[in-house]
Amino acid sequence: MGVVLRLSSTGVTKMFLRSALAGALLVSATHGSFLYAQEAPAAPTPAPATSAPQFPPVGPNNFSATTPTRETVEQFLKISWGYDTDRVWEVFAIEPTPAPNVSKVTIYVAQKSNAQQIAPLVFYVTPDGNHLIANEVLPFGAHPYAETRRALQERAAGPSRGASDKKFEFVEFADFQCPHCKAVQPTIERLVQDFPNARFVFENFPLVSIHSEAYKAAAYGVCVAQQGGDAAFFKYADAVFANQQNLTPEGSDAALGEAVTKAGLDPAKIGSCSYTSAGKTPVDASVKLARDLNVNETPMLFINGRQIPVGEVANGELPYEKLKEIVAYQFSLDQ
């Protein structure tokens, strides 16, 4: 087994290092999926324990590509990983590749608390300098989340609570029939309590190919918000998630009607609305926004444009306190 290094700029919070052979298998989780997996160059033989990791020496010929600059890579890593004070890295090389204007970036990464374990991270940067390529295309640059943040500020129009301004903004994409979305709701509520100066927006992303009643539940919710306001919507949402097991073809009408009643509205009126463009158009707009942002799973949370697979809190991969660190760090960058 090679060195397995699991890093994250979003949801995963610590490195998992295993015993090394000559080659190293690097796995880096970013934005809820593997950033890169490859047989990477072997890390240097671990040196005796010191107060800091002993990274391989960096030579001037290691930086033969014109873009991105070393400073840009450093800024990207600081934005992505700066919340973790135990993580340290060295930008080792930025080199051209046979593909025109595509650069290869090599980084060595370690933990202060485990200085002898060092592993390489390799990714590729597109010619425009705005994306990195791994097994998917991810934002890159000195301000990697700015474009997504602008898109959400302009287009995330779902029910909201908390602050009225968008300086600190959470946007949750969820499917009412998704079990992981239900499981993560206590985490969302903790964030609401812990970040009272932030705005929380709910966006529908019904996964209709696997959840037959999700779109109907979303359209009901849109109509609840239209007729009863955002506070009524969140009462409705709580009730739907609480009785999620009843979202079946046979039981969804009754389950959604009960949730509407708990929100203080007339189920018949909401049901009628849900079949009209008033109920459907906002759901379709929310789905398009999710797809435009390359959201491919639910639940997904954005923190000022930074994508967090928040379901990892519910399944135990990401401790809530570490999530809070990421949130606080991102907000500190956006002051």
Description:
This is Protein-disulfide isomerase. It holds the Pfam family Thioredoxin_4. Keywords: Disulfide bond, Isomerase, Oxidoreductase, Redox-active center, Signal. The chain is α+β, with helices and mostly antiparallel strands and 335 residues long. The protein starts with 23 loop residues before the first strand and ends with a helix. It has two domains: 24-143, no CATH class; 147-333, Glutaredoxin (3-Layer(aba) Sandwich). The protein has ten helices and twelve strands. The longest helix is centred in the middle third of the chain and has 16 residues, at 179-194. The model is unreliable at 1-44 (pLDDT under 50). Helix 4 (214-228) runs antiparallel to helix 5, helix 4 (214-228) crosses helix 8 (277-292) and helix 6 (252-262) packs across helix 7 (267-274). Strands 3-4-5-6-7 form a five-stranded antiparallel sheet, covered by helices on one side. A five-stranded mixed sheet has the order 8-10-9-11-12. A two-stranded antiparallel ribbon has the order 1-2.
Salient structural properties:
single chain; 335 residues; Glutaredoxin; 2 domains; five-stranded mixed beta sheet; 10 helices; elongated
- Kindly, what is the distance between the CA atoms of the first and last residues, rounded to a whole number of angstroms? 43 Å
Number of helices: 10
> What coarse outline follows from CA principal-axis ratios?
elongated
> Helical proportion?
25-40%
Give the topology string: H per helix, E per strand.
EEHEEEEEHEEHEHHHHHEEHH
**Spatial order of the strands forming the largest sheet:** 3-4-5-6-7
CATH topology of the largest domain: Glutaredoxin
- What is the typical, i.e. mean, pLDDT? 87
CA radius of gyration is 22 Å
DSSP strand tally:
12
Q: In terms of structural class, how would the helical and strand content be classed?
A: alpha+beta
Number of domains: 2
CATH C-level class of the largest domain is: Alpha Beta
Instruction: Supply the CATH architecture of the largest domain.
Output: 3-Layer(aba) Sandwich
CATH superfamily of the largest domain: Glutaredoxin
Pfam families: Thioredoxin_4
InterPro entries: Thioredoxin-like_fold, Thioredoxin-like_sf, Thioredoxin_domain
Protein name: Protein-disulfide isomerase
Organism: Silvibacterium bohemicum
